[in-house]
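=== Per-residue structure ===
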Amino acid sequence: MEYRSQKALARTGLVVLALTAVSLQATEFRFQVLHDHLLVRKDQPATLVVDEHGITFQEQSRKKKTPDQLHHGHWGYQDVEQLYVSPDKIKIVTYQDRKWALGVDQEYEFKLLPGQDVRPVYELLKNRLDRRFVAAVADEQVEALWTLPVKLLGKLSGSQGTLRFSGDRIVYLSDRKGASRTWRYQDIENISSSDPYQLTITSYERAATHYGSRKGFNFQLKQPLDEKRFNLVWRRLNAVHGLELLTSIPEKGN
């Protein structure tokens, strides 16, 4: 009986190990990409691997390319200053200075080849990373408490879509490529409004043309934003940050 029990335990252990291996494998996502060399030389084909520990890329060989001429790299998430994920691009900003650009942080941009889905990467990282994660995708599984049809203003042209407000995040859903965003409240620095038909969300996303390198998203609202709802969003943001934020709409009774 003891021998059979040991065999049963051994089989159970093998099953657990196999399931663990499958689980670990399921958290690894591979993409075929073009490594953008930012006008230095032609984009190079590469394999990009994203898992729960970090990101790895390896350029693929082309004619007249030796292994030492092919770029490769790996970053743990603690070494990433900002990770940008959109349906057609993944961009990594590192803490490494770009010496030839007067200390500008080194960036690595990877263009996804058609037919690949980054949503599993968003699902993997949406609650693992902090405000350095820029989700340029709309989380369509968010249960919205209310929605607003809006236009997001841009430098040359804007985009149209819907703002969805939930208990822990705000989603901007748009058909325009790269325009959508999903922000947890901890990913937002501030919200403000000059009138019921205008709303600005200031995020921690890097933007060199904005004050303090924060990126502001200025929305025209097609329906008025009720003051009670604005105050509810503001209080949730205030609770997440644990500090008092300035807003252009005072709360009643002040």
Helices lie at 2-26, 119-125, 227-241. The first strand starts at residue 29 and ends at 36. The first helix runs from residue 2 to 26.
